[in-house]
Amino acid sequence: MTDAATEPDKITGPTPDNALRAADRADEGPVLAADGTPLKQSLNRALRAQKLRALALIAPLLIFVLVSFIAPIGDMLFRSVENQIVSETLPRTVRALADYDAASEEVPSDEVFEAAYYDLFYAAERKEHTRLGSRLNYEMTGASSMFRKSGRGVDDIGEVYQDQFEDLDANWDEARPWAELMGDPDWIAAQEAWDGEGDMPEFELRSDIAEVLPRAANSYEIFARYMQSEEGDSPLEEEPWSVVHTALYQDLSTGDVSGYDGPRAEMLQAADELVATPEFETISFRDGFEEIDEDWVEPEIWRTIKTYSPAFTSGYFLNSVDMQKTPDGPALRDEDERIYGLLFQRTMFMSLVITFSCILLGYPIAYLLSNLPSSKANLLMILVLLPFWTSLLVRTSAWKVMLQQQGVINDVLVWLGMVADDGRLVMINNQFGTIVAMTHILLPFMILPMYSVMSTIPPSYVRAAKSLGATNWTSFWRVYFPQSVPGIGAGSILVFILSIGYYITPEIVGGTSGIFISNRIAYHISSSLNWGLAAALGTILLVVVLALYWAYDRIVGIDNVKLGG
What we know:
The chain has 565 residues and is an all-alpha fold. The protein has helices spanning 16-24, 39-79, 84-89, 91-96, 110-125, 129-137, 143-168, 175-182, 185-193, 209-212, 214-231, 242-254, 265-276, 285-292, 299-307, 315-320, 340-371, 374-385, 392-403, 408-416, 431-454, 459-467, 472-500, 504-509, 517-526, 531-555, and strands at residues 323-324, 331-332.
């Protein structure tokens, strides 16, 4: 029978439940703390302060993880799909190519060549065309040199018009007449009054000039603001680019300036009359590009620009799995160009071989250490940890000396008569060399987790099994080994994840057949500078590791993995 005095609702003493009930009774008023504030408010304030203190304690670690781990991974994921360079460097060309059929074998229209001329000229002035060429060179061999050549050659198209206007009137190659023709009078006055202190007055077009000369006004405005912001020069003192003369020719040939009566009207109308004469020399944009490089009149370059014009692309990931973007959709690359699938398979296979090698070599050592007296175990543990005190590069180089055909191992085998002097074993610059060197380097990472688990297994369990009639093998296999499996699991995960990310050791001893996918990632980061492809390869490798980790958790259970205790 329950004592009424002990039932929660019958206790009349000061308990937390009664205090909360009292706080909820509006008619009795809120329970107050010692400082006179309501108890609930005081408790909430104390909890908030406690949470803030806890957050302040972990904030340095949290910031460190975000900056050094989460942010780089996020940047890698972004770079694997980012592709703004094409649309930002060739904005007019991308818009002009919107209706172009990339699957056709035709060269795009003259409007596309015109847009490409202006885009390439401005990009060349900003030194951005080489970066674009390097990006497109990943997809089309020769694009890099083509864009470098075009950056120098587009100026020749504009010089056709610049020379004729200059021959007509030398003022067309001077800075001041152009500034008076294009610039707002108030800006000209402010620019003349500027004494070099503070920011230069930003260039402003005259209100009516964009209607009379739309292309020339736009080109001159780009020129003037570039001179001010990038070069720090005054447009009143710098003659315009040749592209401005090209734009002037286009405006005069298609528009009517007879009604213009603003500054430099006579000079402009004389130029208009010159353009209307049959003797005025012109060049089409298509012909100008063909003179620069004949590949410009082939559909491949325009197909590549069109295919990779979106701001985000799957092209890097397709390249990572030996595929490519085409006008008809993703397609496999030619068989002799498929290298990444082979590298991924080799990386997974060799990492598994290295992991199993470390298990086979490390388990007996960990078993011996865990069953020896502590004084002897500590001495042997020093030998296990000794490789950590030696440079990774030194250890790898030592294996290169040991394994080469004129190395120590081959010399010993020849001396023992096991191999002929002209039949020395090839153990370096192949998969065997990589497996041997990496097994030696990663073996301590397998021994330590297994030893930490084995050292916690009570010896009495094995003795009890033997006392019940079990043989040495049965007692080991049925009693001892199952308890050591968590250590094997922890060491296997550690060694496998470390091995698939190694690139120094395979680079030194692996040759062409023993390198990992990580070596290719390092190459694209440091040599080819194809960071997008490197990021895509790294992302795929990360996904593979997470998938294997998930599979391991489903099969073995990550809760069964421990480092001891």
